Amino acid sequence: MVPAPRxxxxxxxxxxxxxxxRASILRSISDDLDPLAGFSKAFLSGGKRFRARFCSxxxxxxxxxxxxxxDAGAERYAxxxxxxxxxxxxxxxxxxxxxxxxxxxxxxxxxxHRVFEGRHVEGGWTGSAEEYGRATAILLGDLLLGxxxxxxxxxxxxLRDRGASRATRLEFNRMRTExxxxxxxxxxxxxxxxTRPEEDQRARAERVVVYKSAKYSIESPLAIGAAIAGGSxxxxxxxxxxxxxxxxxxxxxxxxxxxxxxxxxTGKPAGDDLREGKRTVLVAIARARLSSGQRRLLDExxxxxxxxxxxxxxxxxxxRECGAVxxxxxxxxxxxxxxxxxxxxxxLDREAARDLADLARAxxxxxx
Length: 368
Hints:
Layout: H1 4-29, H2 34-43, H3 50-63, H4 72-101, E1 105-106, E2 109-110, H5 112-123, H6 129-156, H7 162-192, H8 201-228, H9 233-260, H10 263-266, H11 272-276, H12 281-289, H13 292-301, H14 309-321, H15 324-342, H16 350-364
Helix pairs in contact: 1-2, 1-4, 3-4, 3-8, 3-16, 4-6, 4-8, 5-6, 7-8, 8-9, 8-12, 9-15, 12-15, 15-16
Organism: Agromyces tropicus
Protein name: Polyprenyl synthetase family protein
Pfam families: polyprenyl_synt (PF00348)
């Protein structure tokens, strides 16, 4: 089994090799494309590699007891390539997500559209710097999406088990559709929530959690790793039963950090989700618990990009004092317990199951 540090090294090496090759292609077109290659390399050098780790452990949960299979080298290359592909896909999603949300920062640094907006200003170019930054970020995100496909295909090309290759590709395609539509549902809720029945708002927010994050962040990477290993239906199902509730807990933790996280740790401004008007499960629970007057105040302030620090603190206090934070924490604990219970399946390798349990605790107790 590949420990997390060794996996990270393998994924980083694969990314460096791949990005260097693609940078040479961009350079052959024009050296004006160097900033795109440079940003991609820098952006992909960071991150927690959670998706890569879940992909590798999905493979190990199936193949752990058959590690010396004849095709082991090709399979391991496929897993590392798929893990790297997930990281590139995630980078593309973040570039587009920051653009959609008008976010200024990502991981404590300027977001992609702001970086290229700044290049426009520094260069003294004509036209709108903001429009240039947005257009460049759209194209950069599209480029990264295409590169994620190329990485996956390069890894799968060496597999002798074509059924495993097809299953992996189908899972990746399904993930891509689900997360893209989950993003749309998120945008829809931010704009259409006022016209929806009050009693439906939590369920609608939970649907966004499932499709925008839970499946994409954990369930799909696990299933992709398992597919490369030729996992049985029972094994893949056990991993899904672990991955979906854990993915829900993962996103709920992210929602809490989006409101209460320390900017020095998260790399995002305090209360950023409040300024962006995210209609999260946390907000849905708070609205159900608040008095009508408090609910009106929440609705009035939520989504105002000009919220100052005092207004953010008012909203933070209002949401916490109504008990919404405690309820979300209870849901995180319950979903994590449900995920851990799925690891008792006899169809999964025991060592990999223990590693998955450790990673589950890490992703649900994190500070960023």
